[in-house]
Amino acid sequence: MSTLQAEHVYKVFGRRPGAAVRALRDGASREELRTDGATAAVIDASFRVEPGEIFVIMGLSGSGKSTLLRMLNGLLEPTDGRILFDGRDLTALSRRELRHVRSTKISMVFQHFALFPHRSVLENAAYGLEVQGADRADRERRAAEALELCGLSGWQDSWPDELSGGMQQRVGLARALATDADLLLMDESFSALDPLIRRDMQDQLLELQKTLGKTIVFITHDLNEAMRLGDGIAVMRDGRIVQQGTAEDILTRPADDYVASFVQDVDRSRVLTADAVMTGPGAGCSCGCPTVTPDTPLADLCAVSARVPHPVAVTGTDGAVVGTVAQDRLVAFIGDEHRAPVRCEEAAA
């Protein structure tokens, strides 16, 4: 499996980009560079994506996230810094070597589907394999398998304009999966979809990831989407990564006021889990009351807490109590109201 790493990456457009990077390292601001005719799109970005991880880069429009993504597969060349994939420095490859890596190791899923209207669904899904030079029978077989994975079995002979927006995006995802690339780059891939279809596509991606275990870099401006999908998250502002961590890290320990303003409207009960709020195991309870696991969402934990007269026990895979969650601590995290406890006999019923 492949590891992706960015090391102190800069991207400057305009005049004298090398001088602009040096000025940024000396403390110059983006605004100061603009007076000299240079635009700093990405500034000193460093991160590492482990094999099988969904790494989300999020930020508002103009934060530099899409520019950063395009440097990860060589569509844009960094002004300074390195992009390492499978231990190879993509910035040092020849054009031919880079094209080979892009056609065999890295696939991209775009925001606006990017389907060919004159090709069938199967032909669209097989396009990456055609670029690789796979023979027709092989590419059609692999494309059909990818379409089935994405829930489009039976639509192979349809045309893109016969499909809904969500189905078209599934074709784009199938095209990326058909090449069996190690790395998927997804640039706001679900943002053009209606909310219900968008959530359905998020579910689809998470289910596929359980089976395929791809390394994925996902770009979004939606924090709820980032929190739902990301194993790791990087928040960008004005070209810089201002915080990296898990959804729990960013939600409970925002690095600055900018990140805090992002997370203030997030539904914590759907993001945080029992592991984030539990304390030491304590004495436990042998009365048969319901328990939860460390990955139980707080929304589900609240339902259990409302039914027991004591802290909720958190149990590991072996059934042993690994922690407890008191109701007042739960309320402090999500702002819920206390509910009157009941007797153990009622809770266990």
UniProtKB/TrEMBL annotation:
Matching SUPFAM superfamilies: P-loop containing nucleoside triphosphate hydrolases
Domain ABC transporter, chain residue ranges per copy: 4-263
InterPro entries linked: AAA+_ATPase, ABC_osmolyte_uptake_ATP-bind, ABC_transporter-like_ATP-bd, ABC_transporter-like_CS, Gly-betaine_transp_ATP-bd, P-loop_NTPase
GO molecular function: ATP binding; ATP hydrolysis activity
GO cellular component: membrane
Family indicated by similarity: Belongs to the ABC transporter superfamily.
Name under which the protein is recorded: Glycine/betaine ABC transporter ATP-binding protein
